[in-house]
Amino acid sequence: MKLLYYFSVCSILLFVACKDSPKKEIAQSGDNINKNVTVADSNNQVPDTDVPLIDDQKDYMIKQVLENDGIIWGMDWLPNNELLYTTKQGQVFRFDGKKNYEIKNIPEVYIRGQGGLMDITVHPNYKEQPFIYLSYASTSGQGSGGNTTIARAKLINDELTDLNVLYKAVPNTKAGQHFGSRFTWDKEGHLYFSVGDRGNRDENPQDITRDGGKIYRIMDDGSIPKDNPFVNESGAKTAIYSYGHRNPQGLTTHPISGKVMDHEHGPRGGDEINTIVKGLNYGWPVISYGINYDGSTFTNLTQKEGMQQPNWYWKPSIAPSGFAIINNQDYGDWNGGYLAGSLKFQYLELLYNVDGKVTKREKIADGIGRVRDVSIGPDNYIYISVESKGIYRITPN
After folding, report:
1. 123 is a catalytic site residue
2. Strand order in the sheet with 132-138
3. Do the Cβ atoms of 122 and 377 come closer than 8 Å?
4. φ, ψ for residue 27, nearest 5 deg
5. Active-site entry in 123, 178, 190, 265
6. d(C-alpha 249, C-alpha 272), whole Å
7. Please, what is the end-to-end C-alpha distance for the chain in angstroms?
8. Over the stretch 297-344, which tens digit does the pLDDT of each residue have?
């Protein structure tokens, strides 16, 4: 009888302990979290996403700037206002307003699934530091497959020279998804970039000793800032700035506040916009507003202590790519709005906001095609790249 009673009590305790837990591999993730740093932001509110999406009002002008039948992944401008842009297939072009010039000596690119040649950025102080930066998938290092790589080079006579790899995510893998990878700069001159979880959902995002599912911050030469959040953590990837991300393909710096912001692909539902704060955990995959693509659930949690809520989430997913914030009074009530390209629904989405809260949403360029990148040009107008078509400029009436 005593033995039977013992087993009965143990069974009840085991049931209570497991009742509300997500899947085992997720519940056990996060062993390498820095408990002293990762405290959720004090303004960590569940966002109000009951904001309808209105139709395209067409009160703007749109003009095609250049044609390209590839996937233009990223773009940025030189100080002379000439445009640099990448194609996923592994090309970089310089566009002088009339003609394209292909850049030579591009590093070898690993093209698989979502991976290829991705973002490009020009050093914000280019006259003093004449470097451009590329993110791309590469096979360098050990193991088969590839992973996201960050490099910088000089551009001389339409050729890359002095190429130097600043960061290479490991391990290499043949997985074709979730490479990231966007760039932004803060006002202090730090370079931020994203690497997706590389399809290893249950290991990479919550483990600061592993690459993947992170936003990183480095100096312009690739060195690690001394005040990065995990520089004193044993075994940590010290370039990590925040973690718990899925696949950020939008990264920008707010033109007024200077805060770094991202948006990232959710699973089926749960695409997010986040304000990126040093050392914070953004929850993937322990918390999420999405489900698996087959309709099953992988977590029952949308909130958890120590994990950050998004500023906004889309449900259903729009598959956001490219991210910019308008800072131009010529756009009227668009000014201050967030811009995200939709790969899935083939439009540019404008999210009006007041004090960081979304108040209205509007389709722009509805039906134009898969909007891959969104950027604000040196003329302070909106530029978008559309897969298999090229680049367009959107100006106010």
Report:
1. no
2. 117-122, 132-138, 147-156, 159-168
3. no
4. -60, -30
5. 178
6. 11
7. 84
8. 999 999 999 999 999 999 999 999 999 999 999 999 999 999 999 999
